[in-house]
């Protein structure tokens, strides 16, 4: 028996795959490689190249492999870009999830761990986000993730689907030097690319009501995130009680200024970030509680900020041409 990881050739999905293998659990990967990399998939893991919008391909995958559950990581994950590409975002995140759920139903696969997002909260009016914080997404991306959660909820009523959704903010770091974040939109790759190109990274605003004046956000290490996906799958396999949603949050967060200082220390590239005007609508602090996930999903912050920056930098350096 194996778990199917959709998007398993991507940054987060590939770490989830490694975490399953480390626990002795077989996996199968499906990925269209629109943002993933085939070399991120271990050679001993069955790899299906294609889109989860292809219901026939999904049915074949379920027929050819003994799948017990699905970790659904595939999706279009760029909140800012989703505002310009709403139809694409809904197709990739809502329609594709519906196609996947239909194929699971046909194959009698009744377990899913869904990669959701803290974007479902929008700009919460609280310093500490919990699972009960009102949902008010502010982008097609955030809306599509919330609809994905609704689809799981409704299929649970209709078919008995056992499921949970994991919400998280900013995922960084690397669990191994051969896996890295290659997104052109995420903070760490942007900062590293700027430094390597001789440019000075920029901070948007330093007049927020925080200790150093820069925004405080939740950053979590990708390897810690992956462990909790496996714990959720194990809980579903065992038929143990599980919440419909969990926040994977740090509980305290770090500031953008702290990140920049840590980047300078870890890389050995001394710089002072440029200060740009603050962006409209950016709140001072957004941090999530991970208490429920700590109780049920082996969630904990095993990596410090220094670890997050160092592992991300080492993985990026390992990928540079010799």
UniProtKB/TrEMBL annotation:
Presence of the UniProt keyword Mitochondrion in the record: no
Cofactor(s), names only, from the UniProt record: NAD(+)
Family: Belongs to the NAD(P)-dependent epimerase/dehydratase family.
Record pathway: Carbohydrate metabolism; galactose metabolism
Example GO molecular function: UDP-glucose 4-epimerase activity
Catalytic activity: UDP-alpha-D-glucose = UDP-alpha-D-galactose
EC class: isomerase
Residue stretches making up the NAD-dependent epimerase/dehydratase domain: 3-249
Gene3D superfamilies listed in its UniProt record: NAD(P)-binding Rossmann-like Domain, UDP-galactose 4-epimerase, domain 1
Keyword tags: Carbohydrate metabolism, Isomerase, NAD
EC number: 5.1.3.2
GO BP term, pick one: galactose catabolic process via UDP-galactose, Leloir pathway
Statement: the UniProt record of this protein carries the keyword Amino-acid biosynthesis: no
Organism the protein comes from: Cryobacterium frigoriphilum
The protein's name: UDP-glucose 4-epimerase
């Amino acid at each position: 028996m194996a778990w199917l990881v959709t998007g398993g050739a991507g940054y987060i999905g590939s770490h989830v795959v490694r975490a399953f293998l480390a626990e002795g659990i077989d996996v199968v990967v499906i990925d269209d490689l629109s943002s993933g990399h085939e070399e991120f998939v271990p050679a001993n893991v069955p790899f299906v190249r294609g889109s989860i919008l292809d219901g026939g391909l999904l049915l074949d995958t379920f027929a050819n492999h003994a799948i017990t559950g699905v970790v659904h990581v595939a999706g279009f994950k760029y909140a800012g870009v989703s505002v310009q590409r709403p139809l694409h975002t809904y197709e990739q995140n809502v329609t594709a999830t519906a196609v996947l759920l239909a194929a699971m139903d046909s194959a009698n696969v009744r377990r899913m761990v869904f990669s959701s997002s803290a974007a479902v909260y929008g700009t919460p009016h609280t310093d500490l986000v919990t699972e009960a914080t009102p949902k008010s997404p502010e982008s097609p991306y955030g809306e599509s993730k919330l609809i994905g959660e609704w689809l799981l909820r409704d299929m649970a009523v209709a078919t008995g689907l056992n499921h949970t959704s994991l919400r998280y903010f900013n995922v960084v770091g690397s669990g191994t030097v051969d896996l890295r974040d290659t997104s052109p939109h995420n903070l760490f790759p942007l900062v590293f690319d700027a430094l390597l190109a001789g440019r000075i990274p920029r901070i948007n605003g330093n007049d927020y009501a925080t200790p150093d004046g820069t925004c405080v956000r939740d950053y979590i290490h990708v390897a810690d995130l992956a462990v909790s996906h496996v714990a959720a799958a194990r809980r579903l396999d065992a038929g143990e009680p599980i919440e419909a949603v969990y926040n994977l949050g740090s509980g305290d967060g770090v500031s953008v200024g702290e990140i920049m200082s840590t980047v300078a220390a870890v890389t050995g590239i001394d710089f002072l970030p440029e200060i740009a005007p603050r962006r409209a609508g950016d709140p001072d602090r957004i941090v999530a509680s991970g208490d429920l996930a700590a109780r049920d999903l082996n969630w904990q912050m095993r990596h410090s900020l220094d670890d997050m920056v160092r592992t991300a930098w080492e993985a990026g350096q390992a990928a540079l041409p010799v």
